[in-house]
Design brief:
Blueprint: E1 2-10, H1 14-23, E2 29-33, H2 41-44, E3 49-50, H3 59-69, H4 76-95, E4 121-122, H5 128-141, E5 146-150, E6 152-159, H6 160-164, E7 172-179, E8 184-195, H7 216-224, E9 228-229, E10 234-241, H8 253-257, E11 261-263, H9 283-297, E12 302-305, H10 311-317, H11 319-327, E13 337-346, E14 349-351, E15 363-365, E16 370-371, H12 383-406, H13 427-444, H14 451-472, H15 479-500, H16 518-521, E17 526-527
Helix pairs in contact: 1-5, 1-12, 3-4, 4-12, 7-15, 13-14, 13-15, 14-15
């Protein structure tokens, strides 16, 4: 089946839906999402969105905090642009129906999180992402020019090289997309293709990401010929609930922002030993501190203590976290919460310019799938939702201007070729390789790394990749097989970038190169497929 559209959006979180709403008045928009439309990382976001809206705050302060958190690898021009675009981004969200929490005087209740010098986090209690997703989904569903393809997973991007029979890809023409339920591959041709597929936390054994976070956009863009940057910078969230029955439930950084203290099992507060900001240090510092505490003391977890705060305040400010912890037998108003780090946010991704475009023409990337230059070596808390809305607007501006200049007609695109593929009767291969990759990444490419561990990971991933490549083309595509192929590609990209960076900076810490080397490594690591 072949479909053509002006705008193809892969992903349905804050970035993809914001972009769809920005361009929908100017052409047809196809939104492809591999589960239900709201099954996104955005929907799980608790803390909030950072923006300078208080008279006690300033753009300069937000820029400085972002640069410091990113260990000065952030691109200052991008940081400046995103921060200064923040207030308008907030207005856009409010105009789309997002209801942020207010105080009694009708002003917005601003939170504070690690790395921020001021209170600048707008939130909807501790369910900010759910509120944003609700409003955007309602707006998207009501727009007549937007068609939503739920339970559809993109397989590969279509480029002029594939259509023309060879050469280096220069232009993106859309994507092949699997209708998961009907088991049919659609050919979706598009003037503009926007990747908004989110992150890749499922590459690791322990993650607070949803199941959809398998790095699909990064993997597809790499295979299509786009440059990929800074994949070594995977952020591990310091505080994920540690409980045998909890499926990696995140305890928002906002809890520490409201005064929670990290303690050892004996009650000792330990962050004073690691950073002047103590429990409000940037995430890379806190995650490494907890990792060190666990190794030194042999404990399974540390404890996040907010019992010194008024119980009514805690219940009102964090109703979702409170209820979830209580369901596991933990009353956070009376006892500390057991927590451990888990893979959380990919700071690298598809390398794009300040307008969100990759080096493959007409292929754009926004949100967590993109490496815009904002986050550098470590993301400042709550800058991600801001980045998604700001770059959605930037990309929309660039796309509409390009189409106004006169778009090139789409060439004839051939349907998906099934070849001699058959139904797989060896699903155990998928499950086994999936588990092996995630354990390999957790053990060898985690919070603390070494040259030897990275080399060991690369060798194992190479063997797995060869097995998957052979298996992949023999069978009809399934969502599990597509995701396995993607996490393998992403895992290898993370290792390749980590092997290149011979220093420790932000989220990339290696015992063989423990110092930060601005002279040689104050630059992005970039990889690109050879054709």
């Amino acid at each position: 089946m072949k479909i053509t559209t002006e705008f193809l959006v892969v992903g349905s979180g804050i970035a993809g839906l914001s972009y769809a709403l920005k361009v929908a008045d100017h052409g047809r928009v196809a939104v492809v999402t591999k589960r239900e439309i709201s099954e996104t990382a955005t929907n799980l976001a608790q803390g909030g969105i950072a923006s300078v809206i208080s008279s006690e705050d300033s753009f300069a302060s937000h820029v400085r905090d972002t640069m410091v958190a990113g260990v000065y690898l952030s691109h200052e021009d991008v940081v400046q642009m995103v921060v200064e675009s923040g207030p308008q981004a907030i207005c856009d969200l409010i105009n789309w129906g997002v209801r942020f929490t207010k105080r009694a005087d009708d002003s917005y209740d601003l939170g504070r999180e690690g790395g921020h010098s001021k209170r600048r986090i707008l939130h909807a209690k501790d369910m900010t992402g759910q509120e944003i997703e609700r409003a955007l989904v309602e707006a998207v569903r009501s727009h007549p020019n937007i068609t939503i393809y739920e339970h559809h997973i993109a397989i590969d991007l279509i480029t002029d090289a594939k259509v023309g029979g060879g050469g280096r890809p220069q232009r993106c023409l859309g994507a092949h997309v699997l209708d998961i339920r009907k088991r049919q591959v659609l050919t979706l041709g598009a003037q503009i293709t926007v990747l908004a597929t989110g992150g890749a936390g499922k590459v690791y054994l322990y993650t607070c990401n949803p199941d959809v976070a398998t790095g699909d956009g990064v993997a597809m863009a790499y295979r299509a010929g786009a440059s990929i940057a800074n994949m070594e910078f995977m952020q591990f969230h310091p505080t994920t609930l540690f409980h045998p029955n909890a499926k990696s439930f995140l305890i928002s950084e906002a809890v520490r922002g409201e005064g929670a203290i990290l303690r050892r099992s004996d009650g000792t507060a330990f962050m004073t030993q690691y950073h002047p900001l103590k429990d409000l240090a940037p995430r890379d510092v806190v995650a490494r501190a907890i990792d060190n505490e666990l190794k030194v003391h042999g404990d399974d977890c540390v404890y996040l203590d907010i019992t010194h705060k008024d119980p009514d305040f805690v219940k009102d400010r964090f109703p979702h976290i409170y209820k979830t912890c209580l369901s596991f037998g933990i009353d956070m108003t009376l006892e500390p919460i057991p927590v451990v780090p888990a893979a959380h946010y990919l700071c690298g991704g598809v390398q794009v310019d300040i307008w969100g475009e990759s080096d493959l023409a007409n292929l754009f990337a926004i949100g967590e799938v993109a490496c815009t230059g904002l986050h550098g070596a470590n993301r400042l808390a709550s800058n991600s939702l801001l980045e998604g809305v700001v770059f959605a607007d930037r990309v929309a501006q660039r796309c509409l201007a390009r189409l106004a200049e006169g778009a090139q007609p789409l060439p004839e695109i051939t349907p998906w070729d099934y070849g001699r593929a058959t139904d797989s009767d060896e699903e155990v291969v998928v499950a086994h390789n999936w588990d092996e990759i995630r354990r390999c990444m957790w053990n060898y490419v985690g919070i603390v790394r070494s040259d030897k561990r990275l080399d060991r990971a690369w060798r194992r991933l190479q063997l797995i990749d060869e097995e998957i490549s052979e298996y992949y083309w023999d069978f009809y595509p399934t969502s599990d097989l597509i995701e396995l192929r993607n996490i393998t590609t992403v895992a290898k990209l993370i290792v390749r970038c980590a092997q290149q960076r011979k220093e420790s900076r932000g989220l990339h810490y290696t015992i063989d190169h423990p110092d930060t080397d601005d002279l040689h490594w104050k630059q992005d690591t970039v990889v690109r497929k050879r054709f």
